[in-house]
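In line with agreed milestones, the collection of sequences with tokenised folds has grown. A representative record is reproduced below.
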Amino acid sequence: MYAAIRKLIKSLLYPLYEWRLVRSLDFSKTPHHVGVILDGNRRWAKANPSKGDPNGHKAGASKIIEFLGWCDEAEVRVVTLWLLSTDNFKRSAAEIEELLQIIGDTVDELAATGRWNIKAVGALDLLPEWLSQKLTSLKPIRKDGVEVNVAISYGGRREIVDAVKCYLSDEEKLGHSLEVAKENLSGDDISKFLYTAGQPDPELLIRTSGEQRLGGFMLWQSASSEFYFCEAYWPDFRRVDFLRALRAYSLRQKRFGS
């Protein structure tokens, strides 16, 4: 009974707490680019067996549109969502097949809203042809729309390797020798060939589920990012958790090595 009473009290107080958080935030200082590691789906499923979602992937997918709505409200301009890592392919074939189907359906749902420009980032050549074609055929919907990167079959090391390969291929097309290519290579050149080329680096990276590591997420782009680790599993991630992340970001002083 006492647990039920505490739950009721929390449910009544959270709207007030959210309102106070919103009032305390300066949205002119909102990060332009937020990256999120959507972690904890399977642990959520184990903790909630009555939900009938054995791997938690459906619950995790259903949170995405809600989360992007919060980003709209906070005036975030670019969002990168890590949906599937290259390491995830080590899971059982049945789970991977289920996850890929859910990702395909989720991308369709996001595109159907007409609210965001969806871009797939990752090693799409590792995906089945039906999903790879779906992702490569995505087109911008709105000129002023928020850019949503769906990181699928993504790994930070693989991204850097692919960027270097693309750079060398470009140098070869220009008729440059390997020695010239090595001499010309700079950090800016690598950035030009990343999956997120042309977009600002993420100022804020969020990981749910309590894990305090990036696991290879946006290795190159996160050099100056602020990190926020949240205890909630991704399906349980709430607007108040997002507002806390924005507050933590706004309170940190960036020094950039000084």
In short: Residues 28 and 75 are 8 Å apart (CA to CA). Residues 2-24 form the longest helix (23 residues). The mean pLDDT is 90.
